[in-house]
Write a structure and sequence with these properties.
Elements lengths: L1 E5 L2 E5 L1 H13 L5 H21 L6 E5 L2 E5 L1 H4 L3 H24 L3 H14 L7 H13 L2 H27 L3 H16 L2
Parallel strand pairs: 2-3
Antiparallel strand pairs: 1-2, 3-4
Length: 190
């Protein structure tokens, strides 16, 4: 892993990030791989912008095989409204970009942006959706039930998302790998 320090934030690049990029660009004969990477970067930049606005410094930004992971312990101790703003910022950015690309006549890129926003709303692993659902459940449910409900929601949503990906993706290796990843991620939560 390559690591650099930018003030108090560690920037990390794992080998798996470069491997996944190489595989992705090898299979990308459509030419919009760079746009997809830009959409993912915009998602994380939106989180960073809201964090900066709220005076929160990220601990690390890690580029790895499954994407980009932003870590900031200070977010978890912030008030629930600030947490919700930080966690939802990336998905909001994806949906806004999707609308802008759609209005500009770039339907395929818009679909990627909408899909990235929806994907990150899944209540699994370290996705934004899981964090947002946990915030909601903490305010509504008994504390002893929060983890159980999170696990059940994650398992159900992973199954539905995997089925949709299998149906929509056909023989696409990327869709297949993503569907398997979702199922494994949900199984880890059980």
């Amino acid at each position: 892993m390559i690591e650099l320090k930018l003030k108090r934030t560690a920037l990390r690049w794992d080998f798996s990030f470069f491997a996944v990029l190489a595989v992705f660009f090898f299979w990308d004969d459509s030419g919009f791989g760079i746009a997809a990477l830009g959409i993912c970067a915009a998602h994380e930049l939106a989180h960073l912008a809201v964090m900066k606005f709220c005076g929160i410094t990220p601990d690390s930004l890690t580029f790895y095989g499954a994407g980009i992971r932003l870590s900031a312990r200070a977010v978890e101790s912030a008030p629930p409204g600030v947490q919700a703003a930080v966690y939802s910022a990336g998905c909001v950015m994806n949906f806004l970009l999707g609308g802008a690309f759609l209005a500009a006549g770039e339907g395929r890129i818009a679909a990627v942006s909408f899909a990235a926003g929806a994907f990150n709303l899944l209540p699994l692993g370290e996705f934004d959706g899981r964090r947002l659902l946990k915030l909601l459940l903490i305010s509504l449910a008994a504390p002893e039930n929060v983890d159980t409900v999170l696990k059940m929601c994650g398992f159900i949503s992973a199954g539905i998302a995997a089925a949709v990906l299998f149906k929509a993706g056909g023989a696409s290796p990327t869709f297949f790998i993503t569907a398997v990843y979702l199922v494994i991620l949900s199984a880890k939560g059980l």
